[in-house]
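User: Before I run my own analysis I want an independent prediction to cross-check against. Here's the chain; please return only the C-alpha coordinates and, at the end, one sentence I can use as a sanity check.
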Amino acid sequence: MRRVVAPVAVLTGVLVLAGCGSEGGKDSAAEVSVSGAYMPQPVSESMAAGYLTVTNKGGTKDELTSVTSDVGDVTAHETVDSSMQEAKDLPVPAHGQLVFRSGGNHLMFEKLKRKPMQGETVTVKLHFTESGTVTVKMPVKSATYNPKTGH
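Assistant: C-alpha coordinates:
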Protein backbone atom coordinates (compact mmCIF):
# COMPACT_ATOMS: atom_id res chain seq x y z
CA MET A 1 0.00 0.00 0.00
CA ARG A 2 2.87 2.39 0.76
CA ARG A 3 4.21 1.97 -2.78
CA VAL A 4 0.95 3.33 -4.20
CA VAL A 5 0.52 6.15 -1.68
CA ALA A 6 3.92 7.78 -2.34
CA PRO A 7 3.46 8.17 -6.15
CA VAL A 8 -0.12 9.40 -5.63
CA ALA A 9 1.10 11.97 -3.10
CA VAL A 10 3.81 13.17 -5.51
CA LEU A 11 1.32 13.40 -8.39
CA THR A 12 -1.15 15.32 -6.22
CA GLY A 13 1.60 17.75 -5.17
CA VAL A 14 2.59 18.33 -8.80
CA LEU A 15 -1.02 19.00 -9.79
CA VAL A 16 -1.51 21.42 -6.88
CA LEU A 17 1.67 23.33 -7.80
CA ALA A 18 0.66 23.41 -11.45
CA GLY A 19 -2.57 25.08 -10.40
CA CYS A 20 -0.57 27.83 -8.70
CA GLY A 21 1.10 28.83 -11.95
CA SER A 22 -0.25 31.24 -14.50
CA GLU A 23 -3.26 30.18 -16.47
CA GLY A 24 -2.35 30.41 -20.13
CA GLY A 25 0.33 33.01 -19.37
CA LYS A 26 -2.22 35.56 -18.17
CA ASP A 27 -0.25 36.36 -15.03
CA SER A 28 3.24 36.06 -16.50
CA ALA A 29 5.66 38.95 -16.12
CA ALA A 30 5.93 41.70 -18.71
CA GLU A 31 8.27 40.66 -21.52
CA VAL A 32 9.11 43.62 -23.76
CA SER A 33 11.11 43.69 -26.96
CA VAL A 34 11.71 46.43 -29.51
CA SER A 35 11.60 46.21 -33.30
CA GLY A 36 11.58 48.50 -36.32
CA ALA A 37 13.56 51.28 -34.62
CA TYR A 38 14.80 54.13 -36.81
CA MET A 39 15.42 57.86 -36.91
CA PRO A 40 14.89 59.80 -40.13
CA GLN A 41 17.95 61.97 -40.73
CA PRO A 42 17.00 65.24 -39.07
CA VAL A 43 16.66 68.36 -41.19
CA SER A 44 17.13 70.54 -38.10
CA GLU A 45 20.38 70.96 -36.20
CA SER A 46 18.58 70.77 -32.85
CA MET A 47 15.59 68.39 -33.25
CA ALA A 48 14.84 64.91 -34.56
CA ALA A 49 12.15 62.23 -34.35
CA GLY A 50 12.37 58.51 -33.68
CA TYR A 51 10.04 55.60 -34.35
CA LEU A 52 9.85 52.01 -33.11
CA THR A 53 7.50 49.31 -31.88
CA VAL A 54 7.52 47.94 -28.32
CA THR A 55 5.96 44.47 -28.06
CA ASN A 56 4.96 42.93 -24.74
CA LYS A 57 4.61 39.14 -24.98
CA GLY A 58 4.04 38.84 -21.23
CA GLY A 59 0.78 38.63 -19.34
CA THR A 60 1.41 41.76 -17.25
CA LYS A 61 1.10 45.28 -18.62
CA ASP A 62 4.13 47.53 -18.53
CA GLU A 63 4.64 51.26 -18.84
CA LEU A 64 7.26 53.31 -20.66
CA THR A 65 8.25 55.97 -18.13
CA SER A 66 11.15 57.75 -19.85
CA VAL A 67 13.64 57.65 -22.71
CA THR A 68 17.28 58.74 -22.65
CA SER A 69 19.96 59.05 -25.30
CA ASP A 70 23.55 60.18 -25.59
CA VAL A 71 22.62 62.40 -28.56
CA GLY A 72 20.29 64.77 -26.68
CA ASP A 73 17.14 65.11 -24.61
CA VAL A 74 14.35 62.67 -25.51
CA THR A 75 10.66 62.78 -24.70
CA ALA A 76 7.81 60.57 -25.78
CA HIS A 77 4.95 62.35 -27.53
CA GLU A 78 1.45 61.26 -28.39
CA THR A 79 -0.95 62.76 -30.87
CA VAL A 80 -4.32 63.64 -29.35
CA ASP A 81 -6.98 65.28 -31.54
CA SER A 82 -4.37 66.22 -34.17
CA SER A 83 -2.24 67.88 -31.50
CA MET A 84 1.17 66.69 -30.28
CA GLN A 85 1.53 66.38 -26.50
CA GLU A 86 4.37 65.19 -24.30
CA ALA A 87 3.45 61.92 -22.60
CA LYS A 88 4.75 61.25 -19.10
CA ASP A 89 3.98 57.52 -19.21
CA LEU A 90 2.77 55.34 -22.06
CA PRO A 91 1.15 51.94 -21.43
CA VAL A 92 2.39 48.75 -23.06
CA PRO A 93 -0.55 46.35 -22.74
CA ALA A 94 -0.10 42.69 -21.82
CA HIS A 95 0.12 40.69 -25.05
CA GLY A 96 0.09 43.98 -26.96
CA GLN A 97 2.13 46.75 -28.52
CA LEU A 98 3.06 50.38 -28.15
CA VAL A 99 3.76 51.78 -31.62
CA PHE A 100 5.68 54.97 -32.36
CA ARG A 101 5.02 56.10 -35.95
CA SER A 102 4.83 59.22 -38.06
CA GLY A 103 1.59 61.06 -37.31
CA GLY A 104 1.09 59.21 -34.01
CA ASN A 105 3.14 58.43 -30.93
CA HIS A 106 6.79 59.31 -31.54
CA LEU A 107 10.05 60.04 -29.79
CA MET A 108 11.16 63.67 -29.91
CA PHE A 109 14.89 64.37 -29.69
CA GLU A 110 15.69 67.95 -28.67
CA LYS A 111 18.82 69.94 -27.87
CA LEU A 112 20.86 67.63 -30.09
CA LYS A 113 24.53 67.51 -29.13
CA ARG A 114 25.27 66.63 -32.76
CA LYS A 115 23.17 66.13 -35.88
CA PRO A 116 22.87 62.36 -36.54
CA MET A 117 23.64 61.52 -40.17
CA GLN A 118 22.27 58.76 -42.38
CA GLY A 119 24.18 55.53 -41.83
CA GLU A 120 24.98 56.28 -38.19
CA THR A 121 23.37 54.63 -35.17
CA VAL A 122 21.89 56.44 -32.18
CA THR A 123 21.70 54.65 -28.82
CA VAL A 124 18.41 55.02 -26.97
CA LYS A 125 17.49 53.66 -23.53
CA LEU A 126 13.82 52.94 -22.87
CA HIS A 127 12.91 52.86 -19.19
CA PHE A 128 9.95 50.67 -18.16
CA THR A 129 8.16 50.22 -14.84
CA GLU A 130 8.29 46.40 -14.93
CA SER A 131 11.00 45.54 -17.45
CA GLY A 132 13.69 47.99 -16.37
CA THR A 133 15.90 49.53 -19.05
CA VAL A 134 16.03 48.30 -22.65
CA THR A 135 18.87 49.63 -24.82
CA VAL A 136 18.05 50.10 -28.51
CA LYS A 137 20.42 50.83 -31.39
CA MET A 138 18.42 53.14 -33.68
CA PRO A 139 19.78 53.42 -37.23
CA VAL A 140 19.58 56.83 -38.89
CA LYS A 141 17.81 56.50 -42.24
CA SER A 142 17.23 58.99 -45.06
CA ALA A 143 14.86 61.86 -44.25
CA THR A 144 12.29 60.33 -46.66
CA TYR A 145 12.59 56.73 -45.40
CA ASN A 146 9.25 54.90 -45.34
CA PRO A 147 9.48 51.47 -43.69
CA LYS A 148 7.50 48.47 -44.89
CA THR A 149 5.98 48.18 -41.40
CA GLY A 150 4.13 51.45 -41.96
CA HIS A 151 5.60 53.39 -39.08
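Sanity check: Residues 5-25 have pLDDT under 50 and may be disordered.
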